[in-house]
Structures are given as C-alpha cells and as structure tokens.
Amino acid sequence: MSSLVIDMILCGIAYVLLIYFIATMNKPPFNSDKNNNGDDGDGGIEDTTPPKIDLPPGVIWPSEGPKSKKPTSPMEV
Questions:
Q1: Which DSSP string do the residues of 38-68 spell out, in sequence order?
Q2: Residues annotated as region Disordered (predicted)?
Q3: 12-68 pLDDT per residue, tens
Q4: CB of 61 closer than 8 Å to CB of 55
Q5: How far apart are the first and last CA of the chain?
Q6: What is the distance between the alpha carbons of residues 61 and 68, in angstroms, rounded to a whole number?
C-alpha cells in the first residue's frame, strides 16, 4: 500500500474519533432530579413588561402620537 492510502485511513479514523468525542461531550449531563423542571432558583416575580425609556424633550413614541388626523382645508395661492 502506498503511504498516501495509509495516511488517508489514519486521518479518517482520527476524524471519526474526534467527532465521537465532540458529540459525547456536548450531551447534557444526566440529571437524577426529575422535579427540577428547568427552575434555576432565582425566585421573585417575573416582570415581562419592557422598561420605560426616557426620551429627549419633543420626541414621542409612534404609539403615543395623535390617533387621528383632522383634514386641513385646502390652501389658496
């Protein structure tokens, strides 16, 4: 056998082993506590409302703008 074939076989084996070890290390660890339910123990009340951002004077949010526009009379030139 040529040295190129041997090198290709060894590289293939190394690749398979590397993928195997990466896959086994990325698995989540076995957790024996079934009642955990993903609770990280922070506690308290969860507030999902977004914070009120302080805007510069004269700037308003589009949702706080005027609700309807009154039609203006046509201008005569």
A1: T--S--S----SPPPP-PPTT---GGGS-SS
A2: 30-77
A3: 999 999 999 999 988 876 665 555 556 566 677 777 787 788 889 888 888 877 777
A4: yes
A5: 96
A6: 15
Structure tokens at 75: 């201008």
Helix, strand, coil content of the chain in percent (nearest 5):
35, 0, 65
Q: Amino acid identity of 46? A: E
Residue whose token pair is 């951002």: 53
CB of 68 closer than 8 Å to CB of 62: no
CB-based contacts of 61: which residues, under 8 Å, 6+ apart?
A: 55
pTM summary value: 0.38
Residue type, 23: A
35, amino acid identity: N
Query: What gap in Å lies between CA 65 and CA 61, rounded to an integer?
Result: 7
